[in-house]
Amino acid sequence: MTTTATPWRKQLGDTKERQARDYLEHQGLHHIASNVRCKRGELDLVMRDGDTLVFVEVRFRASGRFGGAAASIDSRKQARLSAAAAYYLQRHPIALPCRFDVVAIDGAGALTWIRHAFVARS
């Protein structure tokens, strides 16, 4: 199922992704790519943390009513992110270890960085 974000939702998403990128760069990570899309999914951010390639999913939830931002990354979403990462690595062969991180942002703007949030799914 493909959905098109409304303009305000896209703008909000772009703002939160920029907030996450700024935070991670401040923590010493280096930005490589943003919004890498393929048929099976999208990578919000691709960053480098020392000798590790990091695929970052940025999640924003205004309310914690249904578990909050981090809880919204279910096994289906993890599989899509894994497929998108495999796509990226096919096109950009990089001999580095990889990991999946999540940056969860709540309605108050509090940001939580979860390193090694999950392992790749096939």
Explain this structure.
Pfam families: UPF0102. This is UPF0102 protein CCR82_10725. GO terms for molecular function: nucleic acid binding. InterPro entries: Restrct_endonuc-II-like, tRNA_endonuc-like_dom_sf, UPF0102_YraN-like. Belongs to the UPF0102 family. The protein has 122 residues and is of the alpha+beta class. The protein contains 3 helices and 5 strands, in the order αβββααββ. A 5-stranded mixed sheet has the order 1-2-3-4-5. The longest helix is centred in the N-terminal third of the chain and has 20 residues, at 7-26. The chain has one domain (7-118): Trna Endonuclease, Chain: A, domain 1 (3-Layer(aba) Sandwich).
Span between termini: 20 Å
Q: Structural class of the secondary structure composition?
A: alpha+beta
Number of strands: 5
The CATH architecture name reads 3-Layer(aba) Sandwich
Uncertain segments: none
Helix content class: 25-40%
Taken together, the total number of domains comes to 1
Spatial arrangement of strands, main beta sheet: 1-2-3-4-5
Instruction: Determine the mean pLDDT.
Output: 86
- The name CATH uses for the topology is Trna Endonuclease, Chain: A, domain 1
Q: H/E element string?
A: HEEEHHEE
Which range does the strand content fall in? 35-45%
Q: How large is the count of helical segments?
A: 3
The major sheet is characterized as: 5 strands, mixed
Gyration radius over CA: 14 Å
User: Quaternary state, please?
Assistant: single chain
- Given this structure, which CATH class is correct? Alpha Beta
Q: Globular, elongated, flat, extended or rod-shaped: what is the shape?
A: globular
